[in-house]
C-alpha cells in the first residue's frame, strides 16, 4: 500500500465535527474537549467505520483519554 491512512488526523477531524468546532487538540482529554456520553457513542460509531471491527467494551475511554490514546488503543485492537 503506497498511501497510509492517518487515522489520528481523521479521528481529530471527526471529533471536531461532532463538537461543531473548527479543530481539537489530540493531546487534550475528551472531557476537557467537551465530549459527553452521546458524543462518545457517535465517536465509537465513527471509529468502527474507520478502524474496522472493534470491540467498544475493550476500549478504555474516560474523560481523561486523549485522541492520541484512543487512536493507539484502536490501532492495537485491529492489529
TrEMBL record:
InterPro entries: ACP-like_sf (IPR036736), PP-bd_ACP (IPR009081). Residues 2-78 form the Carrier domain. It comes from the Bacteria. It holds the Pfam family PP-binding. This is Carrier domain-containing protein. It comes from Pseudogulbenkiania ferrooxidans EGD-HP2.
Amino acid at each position: 500500500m503506497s498511501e497510509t491512512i492517518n487515522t489520528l488526523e481523521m479521528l481529530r477531524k471527526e471529533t471536531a465535527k461532532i463538537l461543531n468546532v473548527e479543530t481539537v487538540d489530540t493531546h487534550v482529554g475528551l472531557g476537557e474537549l467537551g465530549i459527553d456520553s452521546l458524543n462518545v457513542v457517535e465517536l465509537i460509531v465513527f471509529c468502527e467505520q474507520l478502524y474496522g471491527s472493534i470491540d467498544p467494551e475493550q476500549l478504555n475511554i474516560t474523560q481523561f483519554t486523549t485522541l492520541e490514546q484512543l487512536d493507539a488503543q484502536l490501532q492495537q485492537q485491529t492489529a
